[in-house]
Target: Protein GrpE
Amino acid sequence: MANEEKEKVNETEEQEAVEAEVIDAAPAEESETNNEGSERLAQLEQEKNEMYDRLLRLQAEYDNFRKRTQKEKEAASKYRSQDLAEALLPVVDNLDRALQTVQNEEANKGFVDGIRMVHRQLLDAFDNQGIETIETVGQTFDPHLHQAVMQVENDEYEPNTVVQELQKGYKLKDRVIRPAMVQVNQ
Model:
């Protein structure tokens, strides 16, 4: 019986040793699981931050696109009559020339009055669309508004001043449709 008791004691000791190993191993496994979980959590956190950053960039890009599109629409609306104005400028020029040649003739007074009326209506239509003539004579030469075709010496004007207008220039709001052809003082 002493052997049986020894065996029971040995079995009990072995069970206690196994239980101690299991208890010691459990925190190690939990520690590994916690490390893997925290690594996964950190990875997911990083992915979330990257996605959020991409979202913010896309929102900013969309806002910029929307603003640019709005500006393009406004510009298209603002300058929609430019093609029409460019097509009608030669008509205005010819009416100007016709009026200049017949100003002194009384025989064609009715005809001249009709041309003046058409000319005035055309200029009024231009004015309603924001098309205006460019100021020239007496103005300082501006290559954005004037096209110098001749230079003269004239003591009445400062150097680099427009002396004579050879052809009217026009602008639509703030955009030059056609620069004025001018003579400039040297």
Observations:
- The first helix runs from residue 2 to 78.
- Helices lie at 2-78, 82-101, 109-128.
- The domain at 79-185 is CATH 2.30.22.10 (Nucleotide Exchange Factor Grpe; Chain A, domain 2).
